[in-house]
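Lab notebook, bench 4. Still working through the backlog of constructs that have no structural model yet. Next entry is a single chain of 945 residues. Request: give me the structure tokens for it.
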Amino acid sequence: MLYNDAWRPILGAGGKHPKALDSPGIEVWPEVWDILGAQLDSVLKGGEATWSEDLLLPLERYGYLEEAYFTYSYSPIKAADGFVGGAFTAVFETTERVLSERRMQILRELAARTAESKSVREACHTFAEVLGENNPEIPFALLYLVDDDGRGVSLAASAGLQRSTYHPPGHLALDGNDGWSIARAVRHGEPVVLDDLDLRVGTLTAGIWPEPTTKAIVLPVAKSGQHAGVTGVLIGGINPRRALDIPYRRFFDLVAGQMATAVANSRAYEEERRRSEALAEIDRAKTAFFSNASHEFRTPLSLMLGPLEDMLVRHPTAATIVSERRDLEIMHRNGLRLLKLVNTLLDFSRIEAGRIQAVYEPVDLAVYTAEVASNFRSAMSRAGLRFTIDCPPLSGPVYVDRDMWEKIVLNLVSNAFKYTFNGEVAVALRAAGPSVELVVRDTGVGIPEPELPRLFERFYRVEGQQGRTMEGTGIGLALVQELVKLHGGTVWAQSVLGRGTTFTVTIPTGTAHLPRERIGGEPTMAPTGVQAEAFVEEALRWLPGGGAPREVAIEKELISPRRAVAAVERATVLVADDNADMLDYVRHLLAARYEVEAVPDGQAALDAARTRRPDLILTDVMMPRLDGFGLLQAIRTDGALRDVPVVLLSARAGEEAKVEGLEAGADDYLLKPFSARELIARVDANLQLARLRRETSESERRYRQTQAELARVTRVITLGELTASIAHEVQQPLAAVDNGALACRKWLDRATPDLDEARGCLELIIKANNRASEVIRRIRTLAKKAEIEKVALDVNDVIKEVIALVQGELTGHLVSLHLELAPTLPTIMADRVHLQQVVMNLVMNGIEAMQSVTDRPRELVIQSSQDETQQVHVSVTDRGVGISTENAGRLFEPFFTTKSSGMGMGLSICRSIIEAHGGRLWDTPNAPFGATFEFTLPVNADHAA
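Model written out:
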């Protein structure tokens, strides 16, 4: 081997130079001669050059087997005689470049993947995944994080030790005796190199190399920020085939830095998430407080307003109780005012929590705005104010939520009335390009300009503002702004102190700005009692003498003469409420019309209902032991009580509470506070509906019985009309028996009887006889009037029994069967043999319908389920020739068949059997091919109960 000076560094510093000069290559590079020798031989023998790029050659150059990479070529050197006499090689060592690229790839992947981590645990897990088991740069890695108390470290991730018997401890104390010098790295914040792992932890087999890893570096993982200390340590195994040089050391520093960044970012994300969760929890607590406050307010309000209304009804004008009536009306008005405040606060909290949604419908907004605003006309007149309403017709309807728009108008007009002592209040509605504009203008006291930016903040009130009253919550205008935003609009105010204020609301027309699912749907915002009368009533109290006795809104709504709703005579009503006063009040209201049983909680109501079935259950939602929803679920799953109407009575306001109750199966949902008349009307209406449902169900049952009997009689009559067809069907097999017998006698009468021919004739006779017997048996079955022997059956068991009988037919005709049977079905009352006959007939028909099918799979699907009418439903679907239009209406007629050898009795008998069981059988053609036959049977009454 001959080389130049530039090639000398490839020999390393292990003493190979100058001995390598003029030495055989196998002596210089014995560790890689299996690679180099083969390449050299191919050049010397074949005379063609070779090229190797970034080839791994593990060389012994510095006293250890080194991972090295080279790009080189072998070119033939030809002698004078033309034969190859040697080889020339040009060599470039690419180790540093290959290692650098590999390390950069690891760092890039580590940065990219840990950046997506949302927690420290996830970042550490990603770190272990990136380093993995077969990482030549870091044969193994351990990541320990410092405990919160700083007295120890806990293992957060490990990688590369899958082939090793070493199991790293999950926790180590920072006392200097951890075996890895972790305490030293944490205390000084400097890396520590360990070159005696075999003495510290034993032999470590890790990475891709067969040699054990004997060295490691312990690097501190710094916290973010200056002088922040150490958050953990990274223990990385050093490649046994590479020395820990400066580039390698820098690579470890970068890995530790990347891990420090990932841990810091993950902890920052976790901290931010905790802050967000804390804020969300505060918001949930606020919402829960408002909801609970609403519940706690509404129950006593019901007990205040209900008896007051009763007293006002009983004594509307009696002169002997004038003073008492005045006091009652004061109490009643202030109860309504308290209810209005509670509802306004609750509406605002639900909007903030995102649990309220508008339902947009086309409204003649000019007419509707004028109607709402005109409620204040009498109050404006009594206050001596001019009140103008200017709402000319618009070009078309505007999509708004009617209830929300009413609150917007009422709040703005009420606000103008409150702060205007003379002059006028004007309401105007105009089209403004692609929008409509509502303007409420007054000549009142005005608002200081510095206060205008905060005017729509919740709970904000202008200090020292002169008004008709100092009462108010400071959320009226904030509520208006939120309601306007739900319509995609804006609201702003302009004011001059001492001259008046103008509020302008603008909302877009059309529907492009609105959520599609909320257009024309069912409203989810439950009415909260904030009606125009409540606003006007409050406004009148701000006027001098406004507290004089007058007809209150509740009288107009509840005391005016109406046709009484007829009561359901002495029905039994079960009432459940944990509030003793409410329970006694409701029992007192209902006792004159119904038999009432009152209990204090849901569990007691369930026990009472099971002891004595009530006609209706009226229950509160929030109760101890078993709440209203738990009681409702128990009632709906009890076979004996599932059809009892349940009315939920609750102070839980909001659309989500009402929707939740109705979706859970409640028949009605009544919100506290309620009037006595409304409660009685709701109870009576639900009792009437329950009675109608029972009568309808009984009528349907009788109708089905009559229909089945009529169908059976029709079948019997049809038999008489088809006597000729029956005779024809029976005559054919009898003629075959006669002909077969004559032929058999002829073969036997020969001088030498032909027994084979005679035996063939006998087989024909037997087949014909069997066919005649089958015709007669089916005719008798069709005409049979005897009662069917019914027992409780699982229809799935019957289907499986039939499948076992026809398995050979399915296999022989290459039909694949798919069973889709409901796992739990109620039992039915049926004759097992007859039901097997029906299923068998439908299955065999499906198999026969696919005999000629060759262009698609022959598939038969049998399904069972319970349909929406609670009946058991079975279907058999094939992919056969299907049902033609001309045959669709005749398939169930006796003796009608589409088969060349059929008798046309099967489907007719099947329908008779199903109808005799109180069920129904029908067919459905499938597109583009095949047919489905289906039948339903009523559920066993004992099972349902």
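Notes after review: The first helix runs from residue 25 to 28. The chain is about 45% helix and 20% strand. Flag for follow-up if needed.
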